[in-house]
């Protein structure tokens, strides 16, 4: 079942934190709400769950209006940042909790709990208490507990942020796998762009209670509609430039005294704009070999990272761009060397500032 | 607007009900006291208070006594706590008994046993008199100060001990690494950090001494004290003075409020958070130093425990009226208490059981709303529930007696008013214990239950309450222990046939029947200790989180 949010408003006291937000989430898809803390993503998730009342608008699960329904009757599965396992209950009893609330018989519950724990790879730990589990195991139990009731929608509130880097990737894979397998419509909240890009069918980037952009991971990354999105989703060089009222299409802008071709995805209003170029989309070459659409610069810092090298390259007086190089000889430029930076016009965007 | 979550209305109604109950049983009696002081026609209570030097003397004496006892308690409690946390010495484990002593020995019993030792007719007094040494009278200042200090210093000890144990020695080591001597480092680093806890313990002692009735009345002699005069104004045979009782109770309330504000101010100025703690390893003391320090600490513990020994001895000693025949043993004292008049024992058991159940249930529910279900009423509930901290037992007793003496809710003469007094006196403490547990239970636990399809109220019972059980159990044991020995409020509100064990002990002491009083004291201790023993040994309930 899909989720349809229509002109939703959420207020804390007199203060509207979400105002007129609309969003459709396709049945069975994995949707991520991405944004920095305080952008309203968790508020939106908790409103979908029913823990926060909507002040305006409607929320539908499929065709069913759940706006007025209390959380416990919305048939949701929820995974929390701090796991929220019941510490006094065993793993088995934690997972069985929702099934018991649904009045299923003992044999069915035992079978389903066993299967659910098997699926997250914890079949052997059913008798333990949460305190005896590692962080990754706890979050797997929480996942099994939320999925075993076969909820209409699965809601996850930064479920990976309490885990260390290695576990994060493992649990991430478990979540994606199980979600695909079960085909449950999922809303996932995170502030981690890598997580969002890796896991999602679609991503909604949020900014102060609004959806700044909704799209597939590559749309969000490649065709960011604003410097906010471009900057939040992956590293991006953002340079303020003059670009008076350009229409969508290719334009020529000036950077450090050089002319550059770049793409304008949406109409620009003012006279100032932002040039966006991702570090891995800029190619370096020795001076004099850059070819079309390139500018000159000087290496001011070099960080060797094994399979790639990070450079900081100064262009003129005021501009410094981050560049990431791969492939043979990616580390060959030393600080102080003069280089040419080549830009791919299709991957170089000019956006409203 | 959705507003559909039916849970909101449930909790809203419950908090409204709690609000009404608190206003009726807490705020109304307090207001009755305050307004009562302005009664009396031409010369209201305040005019009378200022005109009569006896009252001002009582206020002054009370403050002097509280200051002296607080000072001595700090002098005893802080060094003991330091020794207990930083050193190992012979007999150290005896120090662990201290918190229990503070808790279990009702102050009436402590006062009584001091009398049995060094009172006019005391064992020590008489022994010394036989070798022509005449002790100064224990009644008055000496008795008050000695007895109250040994009754209350453990509160300073407990709070200081917790602070020193939570102190990160690395701070002290850092100071030393920067070139200060060990002694100076300690003074400069440790003292400021533990100061707020010492102050908190000291101010608690101060308010308890101001509100103390039992010891003050038994040992006070000619020294006029506020609590005793308030009590006399309330219950004096034929001479009860409703205006003066509320005036004096108001004065007591005012004094405690001032002290509490002082405490707040002190704590807000000096609260340090020690982030990562590494505890000091206790340093073993041996040889002469060890014995000296062990001996000093042991002496304090022995003096603290002396009342118990005296009590047990007195309980089994033959007596004729006020005369104790030491060395002749009997069970007659117990027989008399149990067979001829067991009412006080049964009353105590019944009142405390009911008060414990009501008090714990109410404070669990109300603190749950304050912590987890904030609404319009919960801030007010939070404030109201701390109100009894500002009320001495005597003031609570007077407030209840004045408020429910007649009218639509007539409670005077019933056991209910005693139960009510118990519940109110204990409320702030059980609320504090419940809410500190609740703050440690993340909201997500409850939300997880709701998300799995269990309605909010059942969710509370299924996942939150089980997590509170250990804290509830320890709060119940403490509430029981404190209510069975409650005296100052119940002695004002009780009526004939509703005596409790502490009231009976007070009356027996008043009639100089020390043997019977001792026997009742032993029974009272049994009533206090049995649940503590069962809870800590059988159910492994942790009574002191500071340990």
TrEMBL record, chain A:
PROSITE patterns: ABC_TRANSPORTER_1, ABC_TRANSPORTER_2. Gene3D superfamilies: P-loop containing nucleotide triphosphate hydrolases. GO terms for biological process: quaternary ammonium group transport. GO terms for molecular function: ATP binding; ATP hydrolysis activity; transmembrane transporter activity. InterPro entries: AAA+_ATPase (IPR003593), ABC_SmlMolc_Importer (IPR050093), ABC_transporter-like_ATP-bd (IPR003439), ABC_transporter-like_CS (IPR017871), Mo/tungstate-bd_C_term_dom (IPR008995), P-loop_NTPase (IPR027417), Transp-assoc_OB_typ2 (IPR013611). GO terms for cellular component: ATP-binding cassette (ABC) transporter complex. Keywords: ATP-binding, Nucleotide-binding, Transport. Signal peptide: none annotated. The keyword Transit peptide does not apply. It holds the Pfam family ABC_tran. The keyword Manganese does not apply. Residues 3-233 form the ABC transporter domain. This is Iron(III) transport system ATP-binding protein. It comes from Paracoccus versutus.
UniProtKB/TrEMBL annotation, chain B:
Signal peptide: none annotated. It is found in: Cell inner membrane; Cell membrane. InterPro entries: MetI-like, MetI-like_sf. Keywords: Cell inner membrane, Cell membrane, Membrane, Transmembrane, Transmembrane helix, Transport. One of its GO terms (biological process) is transmembrane transport. One of its GO terms (cellular component) is plasma membrane. The chain crosses the membrane at residues 12-31, 63-83, 95-118, 138-158, 189-210, 243-262, 291-316, 349-371, 383-402, 408-424, 467-494, 514-539. Pfam families: BPD_transp_1. It is a multi-pass membrane protein. Residues 59-266, 345-535 form the ABC transmembrane type-1 domain. It comes from the Bacteria. Belongs to the binding-protein-dependent transport system permease family. This is Iron(III) transport system permease protein.
């Amino acid at each position: 079942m899909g989720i349809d949010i229509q002109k939703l408003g959420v207020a804390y006291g007199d203060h509207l934190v979400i105002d007129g937000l609309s969003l459709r989430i396709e049945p069975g898809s994995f949707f991520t709400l991405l944004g920095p803390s305080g952008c309203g993503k968790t508020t939106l998730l908790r409103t979908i769950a029913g823990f926060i009342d909507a002040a305006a608008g409607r929320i539908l699960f499929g065709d069913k209006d759940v706006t007025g329904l209390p959380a416990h009757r919305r048939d949701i599965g929820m995974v929390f940042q701090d796991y929220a396992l019941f510490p006094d209950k065993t793993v088995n009893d934690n997972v069985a909790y929702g099934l018991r609330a649904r009045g299923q018989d003992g044999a069915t519950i035992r079978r389903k709990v066993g299967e659910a724990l098997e699926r997250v790879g914890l079949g052997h730990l059913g008798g333990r208490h949460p305190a005896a589990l590692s962080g990754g195991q706890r979050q797997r139990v929480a996942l099994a507990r939320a999925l075993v009731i076969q909820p209409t929608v699965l809601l996850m509130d930064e479920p990976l942020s309490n885990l260390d880097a290695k576990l994060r990737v493992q649990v991430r894979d478990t979540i994606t796998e199980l979600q695909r397998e079960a085909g449950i419509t999922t809303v996932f909240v995170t502030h981690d762009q890598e997580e969002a890009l890796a896991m999602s069918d679609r991503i909604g980037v949020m900014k102060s209670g609004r959806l700044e952009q909704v799209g597939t991971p590559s749309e969000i990354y490649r065709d960011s509609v604003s410097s906010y999105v471009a900057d939040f989703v992956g590293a991006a060089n953002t340079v303020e430039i003059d670009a008076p009222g350009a229409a969508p299409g290719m334009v020529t802008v000036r950077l450090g005294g050089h002319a550059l071709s770049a793409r304008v995805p949406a109409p620009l209003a003012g006279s100032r704009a932002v040039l966006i170029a991702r570090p891995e989309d800029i190619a370096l070459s020795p001076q004099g070999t850059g070819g079309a659409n390139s500018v000159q610069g000087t290496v001011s810092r070099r960080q060797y990272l094994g399979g790639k090298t990070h450079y900081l390259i100064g262009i003129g007086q005021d501009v410094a761009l981050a560049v990431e190089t791969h492939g043979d000889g990616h580390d060959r430029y030393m600080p102080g060397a003069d280089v040419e930076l080549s830009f791919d016009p299709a991957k170089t965007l000019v956006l409203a500032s | 607007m959705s507003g559909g979550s039916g849970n909101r209305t449930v909790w809203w109604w419950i908090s409204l009900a709690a609000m009404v109950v608190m206003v009726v049983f807490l705020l109304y009696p307090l207001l009755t006291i305050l307004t009562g002081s302005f009664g009396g026609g031409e010369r209201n209570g305040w005019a009378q208070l200022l005109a009569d030097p006896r009252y001002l003397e009582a206020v002054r004496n009370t403050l002097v006594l509280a200051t002296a006892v607080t000072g001595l308690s700090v002098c005893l409690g802080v060094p003991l706590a330091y020794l207990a946390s930083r050193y190992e010495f012979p007999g150290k484990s005896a120090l662990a008994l201290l918190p229990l002593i503070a808790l279990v020995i009702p102050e009436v019993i402590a006062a009584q046993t001091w009398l049995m030792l060094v009172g006019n007719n005391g064992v020590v007094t008489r022994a010394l008199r036989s070798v022509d040494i005449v002790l100064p009278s224990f009644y008055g200042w000496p008795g008050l100060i000695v007895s109250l200090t040994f009754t209350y210093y453990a509160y300073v000890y407990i709070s200081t001990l917790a602070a020193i144990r939570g102190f990160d020695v690395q701070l002290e080591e850092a100071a030393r690494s920067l070139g200060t001597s060990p002694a100076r480092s300690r003074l400069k680093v440790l003292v400021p950090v533990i100061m707020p806890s010492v102050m908190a313990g000291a101010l608690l002692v101060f308010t308890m001494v101001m509100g103390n009735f039992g010891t003050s009345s038994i040992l006070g002699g000619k020294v006029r004290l506020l609590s005793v005069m308030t009590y006399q104004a309330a219950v004096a045979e034929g001479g009860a003075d409703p205006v003066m009782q509320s005036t004096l109770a108001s004065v007591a309330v005012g004094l405690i409020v001032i002290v509490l504000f002082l405490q707040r101010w002190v704590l807000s100025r000096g609260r340090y958070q020690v982030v990562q703690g590494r505890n000091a390893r206790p340093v073993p003391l041996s040889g002469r130093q060890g014995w000296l320090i062990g001996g000093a600490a042991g002496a304090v513990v022995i003096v603290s425990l002396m009342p118990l020994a005296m009590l047990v001895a007195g309980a089994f000693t033959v007596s004729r009226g006020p005369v104790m025949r030491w060395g002749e043993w009997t069970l007659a004292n117990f027989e008399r208490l149990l067979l001829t008049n067991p009412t006080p024992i049964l009353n105590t058991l019944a009142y405390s059981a009911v008060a414990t159940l009501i008090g714990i249930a109410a404070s669990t529910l109300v603190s749950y709303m304050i912590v987890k279900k904030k609404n319009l009423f919960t801030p007010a509930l939070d404030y109201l529930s701390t109100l009894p901290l500002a009320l001495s037992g005597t003031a609570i007793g007077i407030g209840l007696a004045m408020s429910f003496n007649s009218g639509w809710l007539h409670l005077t003469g019933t056991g209910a008013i005693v139960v009510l007094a118990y519940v109110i006196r204990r409320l702030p403490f059980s609320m504090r214990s419940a809410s500190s547990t609740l703050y440690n239970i993340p909201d997500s636990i409850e939300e997880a239950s709701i998300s799995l399809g269990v309605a909010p109220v059942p969710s509370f019972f299924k996942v939150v309450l089980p997590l509170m059980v250990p804290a509830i159990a320890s709060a119940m044991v403490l509430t029981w222990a404190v209510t069975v020995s409650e005296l100052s409020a119940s002695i004002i509100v009780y009526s004939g046939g509703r005596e409790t064990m502490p009231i009976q002990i007070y009356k027996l002491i008043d009639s100089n029947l020390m043997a019977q009083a001792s026997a009742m004291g032993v029974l009272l201790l049994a009533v206090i200790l049995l649940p503590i023993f069962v809870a800590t040994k059988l159910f492994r309930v942790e009574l002191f989180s500071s340990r």
